[in-house]
Amino acid sequence: MPDYQAPLRDLRFVMDEMFDFPSHYAALPGGDDASPDVVAAILEEGARFSREVLLPLNQSGDREGCLLEGGDVKAPKGFKQAYQQYVEGGWPSLSAEPEFGGQGLPHSLGMVLSEMICATNLAWGMYPGLSHGAADALRHHGSDAQKATYLTKLVEGVWTGTMCLTEPHCGTDLGLIKTRAVPTADGAFEITGTKIFISAGDHDLAENIVHLVLAKLPDAPQGSKGISLFVVPKYLPNEAGEPGERNGVVCGSLEHKMGIHGNATCVMNFDAAKGYLVGAPNKGLACMFTMMNVARIGVGIQGLGLTEASFQNSLGYARDRLQMRALSGPKAPEKAADPIIVHPDVRRMLLTQKAFAEGGRMLVLYTAQMVDVVEHGQDAAERERAETLLGLLTPIVKAFLTEVGFEATNEGVQVFGGHGFIQEWGMEQLVRDARITRLYEGTTGIQALDLLGRKVLMSQGETLKVFTKEIHKFCQAEADNPVLAEFIKPLAKLNAEWGELTMGVGMKAMQDREEVGAASVDYLMYSGYVTLAYLFARAAKHASAALEGDEHAFYQAKLDTARFYYQRLLPRTRAHAAMVQAGAGSLMAISADDFGLGFEI
Amino acid sequence: MPDYQAPLRDLRFVMDEMFDFPSHYAALPGGDDASPDVVAAILEEGARFSREVLLPLNQSGDREGCLLEGGDVKAPKGFKQAYQQYVEGGWPSLSAEPEFGGQGLPHSLGMVLSEMICATNLAWGMYPGLSHGAADALRHHGSDAQKATYLTKLVEGVWTGTMCLTEPHCGTDLGLIKTRAVPTADGAFEITGTKIFISAGDHDLAENIVHLVLAKLPDAPQGSKGISLFVVPKYLPNEAGEPGERNGVVCGSLEHKMGIHGNATCVMNFDAAKGYLVGAPNKGLACMFTMMNVARIGVGIQGLGLTEASFQNSLGYARDRLQMRALSGPKAPEKAADPIIVHPDVRRMLLTQKAFAEGGRMLVLYTAQMVDVVEHGQDAAERERAETLLGLLTPIVKAFLTEVGFEATNEGVQVFGGHGFIQEWGMEQLVRDARITRLYEGTTGIQALDLLGRKVLMSQGETLKVFTKEIHKFCQAEADNPVLAEFIKPLAKLNAEWGELTMGVGMKAMQDREEVGAASVDYLMYSGYVTLAYLFARAAKHASAALEGDEHAFYQAKLDTARFYYQRLLPRTRAHAAMVQAGAGSLMAISADDFGLGFEI
Fold first, then answer.
1. Could you tell me the residue ranges of all domains in chain B?
2. How many Å apart are CA A204 and CA A125, to the nearest integer?
3. Which of A298, A557, B329, B365 is the most exposed place for a label (fewest CB within 10 A)?
């Protein structure tokens, strides 16, 4: 059975040594509560909970799946009890605001815990995970009454939330939705329509479920400008605020999926369900983006968690499994064969996972600090800068970390050889679970358009410059540091090239908008590799400075991992840069009809 | 439900127009039987069989899986009937030798049909598929009596075969096997041991199963030099040659796997099972390689088949699914949104699959001609050349086509967005089924060592030169063809670089053998991309010459696909070349103990 230990030492390196979280927390309002001791205690308790409570339910949840019986969904055995422990432990309210019953700790702390949850039981983690987005939408756009009724319950965790966007005929293109909201005499609305792919749409973990639903008002403008957001509870709260009458929303069926079997992916039928408008009419999409940005970073963290899980388990296997002798001669002559970790290609697969896990963790925590500043920063200029950077990095966190997460989990399987394909070992589940992360909350293609089109080109490159300037400054500051030369030189070159590539696509896009879509995914991957290169250079700086201390081996391994990243992963930018520059021509040449001439008669 | 049409037009292009199969067949002994009419009829019938008989059983077989009941395995519903039709249609004997009841048609023809079978039902295809390797081993190494008893039945298809190599503690490293063979008074052997991952190890499709089993004789030398090959039938043939007494080999359990659920992956327990030595004592590994080379190309074809299946179905979806408007303005203004095939990134995903399918098909057929020549070629020098090239290309066919096949099936899922993750559409099954192809019959890492270590470096690069010289000649011959300049120039450059990279690794490997393993997988992928580049340049030559004819659209699409390959896939060689040159240093730096310092306490 798979094992997992939260990477507490690595977290300490990134949080304390690289990004000085203690000072960062101290500068936030109420930051005193997030003292180093408290943070350490929370992380340790999270490590224990994820390992001891969630991990044992991961494989059984995958095998068992969810059950729809008489209109009600049952999560796999043990999920409900684990959720109760989660609520009793106060986890849902950790980073919520005190005025709604939250503990007021920084959001970044919740993100760290989220990595542990995703690493041990992604399917389970999505039940509480979806509540964050729903709570955020209500916090930002809900009325005081809505906050009092729904937000406090979500924060407590006794109720959970969903995001009901997708319909059978549209996911990306929400302007096409057909779900209708008809006003009723009491100021509420009757919501009617079908939503699909609703994660945690129904289940038995919490006493009520708060659906945040996109629907169209009568006479709403066409397309995405005519979408409104509604809150639709499974049970209508009674006067005491407790679940009362059952509302007209039911799970019609459960999807049979490739992975995350333990999470209920529901078709939700709304049949004149009572709902309440959140925010202004026809401004639903903007409200929804509040949820989606939070959710997108959350999905990136899923990629990270699965990467770490895959890394740890394939490392264990590579140390134990005896097969062949090292090409340079026996390394364990006393054994029947050498452990496969002696083989360079096995090490390549392990290091690929390790580098993506450690690199992804740096990226998530770097972004997490910005989330804290955007939410609670005391300085307006800092807040604005953080918001800009967060906008730029969100699609990278989401798409890059899930793309490399899928690769990493596949490398994990590959280390196991044929055993990786067998369910018992738990490695193939990581691949199946990881596969959804490239799709939901906006596919990689959608994230790439968001990055290149909305964030970078729409700002005339200014958004990107905020980040490349930071990298440039770092490179300048370390230019004379001989220890870092192997990192700084290639990084400075890539950083400059990033700007040039952007300019190149921007110029072409002025002639032909399709050039944006043609370059976008390679541009996003390129951006991801350069971003991680920057963070690994910073890691190398801290590691090399600490080499002489007590923990030589840890810092040396960190430096070696950075070196591996630069030598064996960063060269992928060569391919992506060429493909960014290749243009739209070869993509657009063949007509839709002619695509199938090789097989269509 | 997924659909599939055999790519008959594309096959005609590759077989008739590019590689002149009519002349190739005419030059083989008995080649008159493989006249263009006969070949066309066989391909059409194969297309019908795979589409009408196999495809409808693919999803149901995946859902149902196999059943072990009372020691006997039942394949999913319909599999047995489909197999009966297959046998009645004479498919198993197609390319077998007439002296054993075969139809004597060229092997390459069987490989073409294999693509169709793998595209429509990989799990089913493995039942007859494994018989080929078993038959080949008997044909090359079996005694006349063994051939008479077993080979004819395998050729007829009334019995099927297996390859029993792997044991719980060893797969790659067969020198470690523990299965024992003890001679008995009648000249036979008692085989005792446990074999795992035995595909089609037990089932109800055929009346008997012929296991080819690796085991050790008493006092055999240690390691891989002490392995012998045995034939162990499920039922011992009686005097009439029909299945008689049950032998001591039973399926102990079925593996629960990520994919190919319809194929029975068995733990086979041999308990003093009666077996017969095949070939010389202690020479079993050499005999096994006969089976494995056939099987390895077969797995490459699996990658190809799944790629084509994924391409066709995602193409259909991309034409139908309406979502968003093209960035350059509406393309289907009469519809609610444009079909997603207008979006450049969707086209990138479709073209990636298309290029890998068409490129893979060229590679398989190019290799298939060599298989024919090796088996039946009339000229000794030609045979030797074909054998050399076949040795070089086999690991590329196996590993490259399965690596890109896995990528292609994932792109197929990605085109479907969230729907790709839902079982109903059948796309995620292609990914799960494809995942095993990177593992069995030798992982990608093992293929890469075979290519770089055994084939290329052990021959001092001579084996590679046979191929690069052919490419060089082609480039020289077309150097002044202005239409092909966009292909020939980069191809010639890559071809030269291929030699330089090889030399570079060879030099480093003289100092440190680990350099071979460090470079191997990137070297293999590099080799695969250059090989396909050569074949696409040849395709472009034929296509550009035929542009003015009746089928302009077909040839234009072929040329555009070649262009896409060169512009958008071939740049990946830049990354692989850099990583081949990166050396072993960064891979070997961290000790096995220090790998886990980020999480191990």
1. 460-585
2. 14
3. B329
